[in-house]
Automatic annotation (TrEMBL), chain A:
This is ABC transporter ATP-binding protein. Keywords: ATP-binding, Nucleotide-binding, Transport. InterPro entries: AAA+_ATPase, ABC_transporter-like_ATP-bd, ABC_transporter-like_CS, ABC_transporter_ATP-bind, P-loop_NTPase. It comes from the Bacteria. GO terms for molecular function: ATP binding. The keyword Cytoplasm does not apply. It comes from Luteipulveratus flavus. Pfam families: ABC_tran.
TrEMBL record, chain B:
It is a multi-pass membrane protein. Residues 102-286 form the ABC transmembrane type-1 domain. It is found in: Cell membrane. SUPFAM superfamilies: MetI-like (SSF161098). Keywords: Cell membrane, Membrane, Transmembrane, Transmembrane helix, Transport. This is ABC transporter permease. CDD domains: TM_PBP2. The chain crosses the membrane at residues 49-66, 110-131, 143-162, 168-190, 233-252, 264-283. Its main location: membrane. Belongs to the binding-protein-dependent transport system permease family. Residues 1-30 are annotated as: Disordered. Residues 12-30 have a biased composition (Low complexity).
Length: 281, 299
């Protein structure tokens, strides 16, 4: 079986403006030597400390930027820019504020050859899938954070991409809404059969959602380890998060992440807290 | 403000889900409550209306009584009381003079304003599409914008005479810059996140501009349009005062020089009412186009 997504020796460098004490522009190594295969229909979570290049990697997958070295393969062929075969969900929702929920969802569909009626019908279906039937005519500023992110998910799902790329989509939500949306995401993933790459800095979220968790090192980001997660089904309504197996995975990933956070600290980076946020040094 | 907070009946019912109630059972009380809240609302808006118009009414009263009691008869000639001015106004309407002048002014300002809006938005979009053109032109545009349009009035008169072309041109010139600069600002302040989102869907540059940049700039552009409306009337009246054979500005100066003081005040009154109406209309329009903005105050 060929992988849906293959990263082959992918590296990404940025040229950064010189700061006051530097004379010329410096090169920042954001990602280095990333090798990773993601199978079709898989849900992979990508866990890494803040600044480890997670968003950079997602941009590469989404075709929003090109790698400095190596290749990003989609179904075996190199990606050429963004496309409707991949959908991105951003942390800050990125909804179009002048469009209603329904019109936001139809945005991607307008790129396809669909009649207006067909677009609206499809958008309604997907709003219903994310639990927002009845909110079609609301503007984004009339929706809560969780509802906005649901609209954003519906927008990305509506044109039925093979791959869903999600960049810390639930990080800005309160704990209850986050857990609710995590379960919804799992349900949607099972319904649609899409390949999902889910970026997070939360260990718990990575374990709960992922079939595999890829851990990134601190900058420059490399794949430190890929951990297979083998947990009983999430549907049971049981408290999976306190299951001994869950706790064991959690601890294992905590150790991996902490090595990186400690390394970053020793390397004189900004101090990074265990939850991935940056605190004062 | 505090009355809104303390009065539960005036709080707008805006919950996400409609409350599952039994309307039949609650009907009598609901109707009563509704009636009570209606009376309340009418009363409240009436009180607010009285308060909001109080200053204007006081001013008009002062205008009526002041000249008759506070000043000497020989200055009173230059400041006739309100009823004399209104009388002159009615006379002007009766013989159709006012309509003629109003129409002349309206034609010029609508023409100039229209040219400015179309031109300002077009040039603004082109300029902001090409970043290099923008950085090249911005200093020059700043220079022009900060040169009061009226300072250039003699130049327009020299080059284009005192005819219609000259008047329409100066109005168009004055109204052009607010539209242009607001269009550029609106395009520049589009949320980069939204551009990323649109690009991730594979939209071309032009499509991103059309479907993301443009709609997000619309409220800012309309703020410019409103400013342009105010500017166009202001400049037009001044231009008509300097050299014209018709128009409200001409009416005002001409009345003054032929010593028809009440008629002059009637002209001034018309100008301020026209300005008010234009501004009100444009504020409405601006609000309409900024509906989706939660913080849209229409100002
Ligand atoms: N466009 C850019 N120009 C320069 N540096 C960048 C750019 N984008 C990201 N970086 C840098 O690359 C590193 C990784 O960033 P990012 O991918 O956003 O990390 P994460 O999403 O894991 O927090 C950071 O040090 C960031 O400052
Ligand atoms: Mg990030």
């Amino acid at each position: 079986m060929t992988a849906k997504i293959s990263l082959r020796g992918v590296g990404k460098q940025f040229v950064v403006r010189p700061s006051r004490d530097q004379t010329h522009a410096a090169v920042l190594d954001a990602l280095r030597d990333i090798d990773l295969d993601i199978a079709a229909g898989e849900l992979l979570t990508l866990l890494g400390p803040s600044g480890s290049g997670k968003t950079t990697l997602l941009d590469l997958l989404g075709g929003l930027s090109t790698p400095s070295s190596g290749q990003v393969l989609l179904d075996g062929s190199p990606t050429t820019g963004p496309g409707l075969d991949r959908g991105i969900v951003f942390q800050q929702y990125a909804l179009f504020p002048w469009r209603t929920a329904l019109a936001n969802v139809t945005f991607g569909l307008e790129q396809q050859n669909l009649s207006r009626a067909a677009r609206d019908l499809r958008a309604r279906e997907y709003l219903e899938l994310v639990g927002l039937a009845g909110f079609e005519d609301r503007y984004p500023h009339e929706l809560s954070g969780g509802m906005k992110q649901r609209v954003a998910i519906a927008r990305s799902l509506a044109y039925e991409p093979d791959v869903l790329l999600m960049d810390e989509p639930f990080a800005a939500l309160d704990a209850q809404t986050r857990e609710q949306l995590q379960d919804e995401l799992l349900r949607i993933w099972r319904t649609t059969g899409a390949t999902v790459v889910f970026i997070t800095h939360s260990i718990e979220e990575a374990v709960y959602l992922g079939q595999r968790v890829a851990v990134l090192t601190s900058r420059p980001g490399r794949i430190k380890e890929v951990v297979d997660i083998d947990l009983p089904g999430r549907e049971g309504g049981t408290d999976l998060r306190s299951d001994p197996a869950f706790v064991a995975y959690r601890h294992r990933l905590w150790q991996l992440l902490h090595e990186e956070i400690a390394r970053a600290r020793d390397a004189g980076h900004r101090r990074i807290q265990p939850d991935g946020t940056e605190g004062a040094a | 403000m505090s009355s809104i907070l303390t009065d539960p009946t005036t709080r707008p019912p805006r919950s996400a889900e409609p409350a599952p109630g039994r309307p039949e059972a609650a009907a009598p009380e609901a109707v009563a409550a509704q009636r009570r809240s209606l009376v309340h609302r009418v009363e409240r808006s009436a009180r607010a209306g009285v308060w909001r118009s109080a200053a204007v009414v006081l001013f008009l009263l002062l205008w009526e009584i002041g000249p008759q009691t506070l000043i000497t008869p020989d200055t009173r000639v230059f400041l006739p009381p309100l009823h004399v001015t209104l009388g002159a106004w009615v006379d002007l309407v009766r013989d159709g003079t006012l309509q003629t002048h109003l129409q002349a002014s309206l034609t010029r300002s609508v023409l100039g304003f229209g040219i400015a809006v179309v031109g300002g938005i077009t040039v603004g979009l082109v300029v902001s599409w090409y970043a290099t053109v923008q950085s090249f032109l911005t200093p020059l545009l700043e220079l022009f914008r900060n040169t009061a349009a009226l300072a250039l009035l003699p130049v327009f008169t020299l080059l284009l005479g005192i005819g219609e072309v000259s008047k329409v041109s100066i109005v168009a010139y004055a109204a052009f810059f607010p539209v242009l600069l607001n269009t550029i600002a609106g395009v520049r302040t589009v949320d980069p996140m939204l551009i990323r989102a649109a690009r991730s869907l594979g939209l071309s540059q032009l499509r991103v501009f059309q479907k993301v940049v443009l709609p997000s700039a619309v409220p800012t552009i309309f703020t410019g349009v409103r400013m342009a409306g105010t500017a166009s009337i202001l400049v037009l009246i001044a231009a008509e005062m300097v050299g014209a054979k018709a128009g409200l500005g001409y009416l005002i100066v001409n009345s003054q020089s032929s010593f028809q003081i009440p008629q002059m005040y009637a002209g001034i009154l018309t100008v301020s009412l026209l300005g008010l109406a234009v501004n009100l209309g444009l504020v409405r329009l601006e609000r309409h186009f900024s509906r989706w903005r939660p913080d849209a105050t229409g100002r």
